[in-house]
């Protein structure tokens, strides 16, 4: 499938409070030649969010015509966990839970 890539995206000096999702990167779960690179989240403050950062490499809107995938359950009342595959970069400052990138 021919999909355009996304690159050089910056989210800077932002605040998210009391909402379900914060910043989000989604890529299709079906095969594609699209890409996401050079994404920067800088000086972003998040308070009381269900899912502060979502990087979804298996996005499938309306579960239509996508490969079989395991659906994630709600994170409410469970400690947050970081789970990463094919991720590169660096992180700094407080990370809670502990992230996938080296500080």
TrEMBL record:
Keywords: Cell wall, Cell wall biogenesis/degradation, Glycosidase, Hydrolase, Secreted. It comes from the Eukaryota. The keyword Zinc does not apply. Pfam families: Glyco_hydro_28. SUPFAM superfamilies: Pectin lyase-like. InterPro entries: Glyco_hydro_28 (IPR000743), Pectin_lyas_fold (IPR012334), Pectin_lyase_fold/virulence (IPR011050). Belongs to the glycosyl hydrolase 28 family. This is Polygalacturonase. It comes from Solanum tuberosum (Potato).
